[in-house]
Amino acid sequence: MLSMLDSLRSALRRAEGRAEALLRHSIHEQTQAFVHGALGPTTRKAVKHDKPLKKALLGLRGLAADFPSREARAEGMDEAVLKSKEFKAGDHAHDFPPRAAPPAMTQLWLLRSAVRALSDDRSLFAQKSSLLAEPDLSREVAKEMRSFYVQSAHFEPLLQLSATVEALSDVSFLWTREFYLELCDVVQFPTSMSLPWVLTEHVLRQRNTPLMPLLLAPLGVYNCCADAALRQHKQQHLYAEIEGELALVFEQVLFTLSEQVFAHCKTRASLMLLDPARLGGIAAADDGAAQALGRNWYAPLLAERTLVLLGRPIDLAAQLTVRMGAMLRSSVDIAISRFESKELLAVVELQAALRACRLTHVLLREGLPDLDEFEEVLAEANEAVGFLSFSSRILDKATRDAIDDLLPNCAYRQDAVLFDRPPPTAFTPPPERDKAPRSTPPHLLFGTSPLNAEYAMLAAAAGTGFGPRHAEALLEVLGEAGMQALSRALSEHLAALLPHSLSSYVLALQEALPAEIKQPSHVYGAAGCLGYYEAKLLDLRGYEELHSGVLHTFRRLGNGVALVRLLEAALGTRSTFALGQLPVEGGQPPLVAAATAVAAAWGQQAADSDMVLMAEQLAGVCAPARSSASLLLPLLARLSAELAPLKASWLGEGATALHRVWSAVQFLFCTAEHAPGLDNAALFGDGVSLAGCLVLHMLGQRHAFDLHAFNAHVLAVHLAGGAPADATLDRYLTRVALLKRANEAAFAMLEALGSCEKR
Prior knowledge:
Helices cover 67% and strands 2% of the residues.
C-alpha cells in the first residue's frame, strides 16, 4: 500500500501541470453551466414576478456568472432583459466563454453557502406558502442545487492539487506517537516497535520473494515525518530523533540486505557447480536453496541509485557494492584460512570454495558492475599483491605441507598413484598448523548449512589420500606459475637431502655392512638362503636408525620424486587442453597475425614493425606450457648434479658398492619390521624403493643390483626348488614379489625419461 501510494504521488506530480489546466477548465464549465443553465429560468421567473427570491438569485448570478464581455455582463444582469421573451425562448446553457478561470476560494465558499441556504428543506423558498401554492424553488431546481452543492465540495481540493496530493500521501502519522509515549510514561519506544521498521523487517524476513522490491517503501515514512516535524510541528528535536532512528534503521537494512544478497548469489553459485541430479533433493530439504533456484527479486534493489532520504540522495548500489566487496574478500579469506588449518587434502575443498566465490562474483557483477575484479580480490586475500610477488598464502601452505607432512609422514602407493597416511610413529610427528576460524557464517562458505555439509561430503569423497584429483585441484588454485614455484621448492629440498642426510646414512651402512657376503648355494633352499642373509645382516638389523633414519630419509626422497611426477601429470593434462585451443604447430598466433596485417596495411614489413615484435613477445609470454614440458626432468638433473661429488664414494668396490648396500636395505625392508604386525611396505610405501632405484639409475648400477640382489637370489632359489614355504618364508616372498614389481615400475619410468646426465 505504501509503495502504491508513493507511486501514485509520483505519477500525479509528473502530470500535475496538464491535469491542473484540465481541472480548472472543467470546474469553470460546471459552475457556469449551473449558474446560467440551471438557475437561468428560475432567476427570470423570480425577476418577472418580483418574488423575494429575486434578490438572492441575482446575487448568485452577479457573484459567479461569467460573460464574454462587459457589455454581455451588463445585458445579462439587466432585469428588463431577463423578463423579455427573447431571454425566455433562448438557450442560456452556453452563455459563458470556455476558459480555465474557476471561481476563487472566497467566491466558491459564498456560492456554496448561498446554494446550501436556498436549497435546504427548511428554507422559506423551498416551502409552500399555502396549501395550493407552489414554492418559489421548484423541486427540480432544488434538486439540481443540492447536486451542485455536493459536487462542488470537491472543487477546493482539486483547485489545490499539489497541496491535496501532499496531504493525501502524508504518512507521518505512522510514526508520530508522542501521545502513546505519555501514556506509557517512557522516553522513547525502541526501534523494534517503530512501524516503518516493523514493515521493513517483515519484508527482509521473507527474503527472496515478490515483496523484496518494495523493501524501501516503508522508509518513505521518515521523509513525511521529517517534513511534518519541521513544517507543521516546528520541532528541531523531533527531527533529530527521526534522523537518528532512520540512520539506525538504514544501517540495519544495508547490513541485512547485503548479507541476504550475498547469501543468495553464493547459494545459487554453489548449486550451479553441483550435479543437476542432486538439485531436486537439496531444494526440497533447504528453503534457501529453493529460493536461490527461483527468480532473483533482489535485482531491482541492486539497480537503485536515486534513493532520497531526508532530502539526501543515496546511491544504494554503491553502498551495496562496497559491502559485497568486503564480504567477498571475507569469503575468500575464510576459504584460505580453512585450508591453512587442515592437511593438503583440503585443497579439494579450497578449489570448490574458490570456484563458488568466482561464480558468486559473476552473479554479483550482473547487478553491481562496479564490483572489483575477482583476481584483485583473490590476490589481496591471498597476500599476493606485492610488486613481483612470488609468494602467497596458498603457495606457502602447499609448500610447507608438502615438505613437512606429505614427504615424511605419508606412504606413496605406486599402483593407486596415491599418498596415504600410515599409522603414526615416533619419527613422524604431525606438523603444526594454524587454528581454524572459530565460527564461520554459512553464507561465507557455500551459502547454507545443508550446502556446506554437501560440499564437505564431496571433499571427503575425493579420498583420504593425496592423488591425481588433489594434484589437479592444487594446480587450479596455484596456477602454472605457482606450480613451478612449488616444484622449485621441492627440488631444493630434495637436492639438500643427498649431500646431507642421505650421504651420512649411506656411509654408515657401508661401514656396518660385512666385508664379504657370498650368494649361498641353491642346495640350502630358500629358507636356508633367507637364514644366511639374516645372519650376515644381524648387526645391521640392530641399527637403531634403520627405520627412523635410513628408510625414513629414502622415503622422503622417493615421495618427493613421486609428488613431482604427480604434479607433472596434472600440468600435462591442463597444458594439453590449452594447446588444443592454439593454432597448429608452425602457425602464427592470432595476435601476431593481426599485428602483421595491420603493419602491412601501414606499408611496413613485419620484420621492421615494433608492433609485430611486441605481439610475438606477448604471445610467447602468454602461451601455456607445452604438453612435453616436464617438472620431473629438471628435478632429476639437479639431483644428478648433487650426486656427482658422491659418486666416487658410493660406487666403491665389493661390499661398499651402493648396489650391495641397497640390496641389504631392501632385504631388511622385507624382514625387519618396525613393530610387530607393522609391515614396512604399509609404513613407508613405495617411496623407499623409488628413491633407491633413482640413485642406482643415476650411478648406472641397476644391472649390478639385479644380478646381486639378496631378495632376488632367495626368490630365484624358491622358484627353482619349488618346495612349499612355511608361513614366515611365504610372508617374506610375498613382500619380495611386491617390492620387485615396485622396482621394475620405477626403473621403467626412469628409463623412459632417459639418462638425466644427457639431459
